[in-house]
Specification:
Length: 354
């Protein structure tokens, strides 16, 4: 087992955005422009998930690691962000079969925007994960553009203008039913059911105005929901090795979901016992010196959950909570009522073999 100092020193953080559409589906730019925009926004890697399309180029493009997946999309239900595949997978109504097909092809995936609102004040059809008994590998717990669409009011020119000029006010935090479902899945499984945050970037053009406007251009969305991953050592120079590092981190839940629109700088979150320190998505042995640590240079409203049950809440910059029981622990933090950061679970166990 590595020492705390050694493990902390070897962990490398990188920032990426997930759930992006290009001209190959319903986006409005190609990967060359999108990668340049990502670089200008301080992003290290991006994951393209075009609807039912696997044609986009991947690689290290304009200094950005571009990874392609696919959003398997069957009309207005059960959209599935599949990663780690090497070929196109055709959509069908039976999402359980698609999940198995993704696994057979060496991939994994996340239920996309599973709880879009049925009652909307616009004509866009909600796209939901209809059958919650069909279990994905992971869950997209927050989707920026999807939540904006839930709250977009197209009733008249004034509500449309508000939805555009104050568009960030329409996206506050993940839907509670999505978080509840994610907790339920984690309680039912021994292993971690990981979560990601997605931006669902299309750079969609709204034509309800006299002059069409682009709502959430790529430059805007790249500054919102991101995923900070943790890898042992820096990202490799070779693209295939780097891609494997990023996908492995997401598959294990080695990522924080950060809303950079609320606050750009990520906090430090880790669990430490007498012998080692871990980041989210990892496991640690419970002892008398096991603590969950949260450190931020800005005051937040912090919540700590054990197996989906809130065990701490308070306004703080720094929190050190002693862990006395086995379980899966995660945190949520808000700033001024807006979601800021959501961690994947830390697994704490009294047993040596877990």
């Amino acid at each position: 087992m590595k020492s705390t100092e050694q493990q902390r020193k070897n962990f490398y953080k990188s920032l990426g955005v997930i759930h992006i559409h290009t001209l190959h589906s319903d986006g409005t730019e190609d990967v060359e422009k999108i990668s340049k925009t990502a670089k200008a926004c301080g992003i290290d890697w991006i994951i393209i998930t075009d609807h039912n399309n696997f044609d986009v180029k991947e690689g290290i493009i304009n200094g950005i690691t571009v990874i392609k997946g696919e959003e398997i999309s069957w009309y207005d239900q059960n959209h599935y962000l599949c990663l780690g595949i090497d070929k196109f997978i055709s959509p069908s109504e039976n999402i359980a079969d698609k999940i198995e097909e993704v696994k057979k092809n060496g991939g994994f995936g996340f239920a996309a925007h599973p709880d879009e609102r049925d009652k909307r004040q616009n004509s866009k059809q909600a796209i939901k994960w209809l059958d919650k008994t069909v279990i994905p590998d992971g869950v997209e717990i927050w989707n920026w553009f999807s939540q904006w669409g839930d709250n977009y009011n197209s009733k008249n020119i004034f509500t449309i203008a508000y939805s555009y000029f104050f568009r960030h006010k329409l996206v506050k935090k993940p839907w509670q039913e999505t978080l509840n479902w994610w907790d339920k899945l984690n309680n039912e499984k021994k292993e971690i059911v990981p979560a990601i945050g997605g931006i669902d970037a299309h750079a969609l053009k709204i034509r309800d105005y006299i002059i069409p406007v682009t709502v959430f251009p790529y430059k805007t969305t790249f500054k919102t929901i991101s995923n900070q991953i943790f890898t042992e050592g820096p990202l490799k120079d070779d693209f295939k090795e780097r891609k494997e590092q990023i996908l492995n981190a997401l598959k294990k839940g080695n990522n924080l979901i950060i809303n950079r629109k609320t606050y750009k700088k990520a906090p430090e979150i880790f669990v430490k016992n007498s012998n080692e320190t871990i980041y989210c998505g990892e496991k640690i042995k419970l002892d008398e010196n096991t603590y969950l640590n949260f450190n931020c240079d800005k005051q937040v409203y912090l919540k700590i959950y054990r197996n989906g049950i809130e065990i701490f809440s308070g306004i703080t910059k720094n929190e050190k909570t002693r862990i006395k029981e086995s379980g899966k622990y995660r945190i949520e933090a808000e700033i001024n009522g807006y979601g800021y950061v959501y961690s994947n679970p830390f697994v704490v166990s009294e047993r040596d073999n877990f």
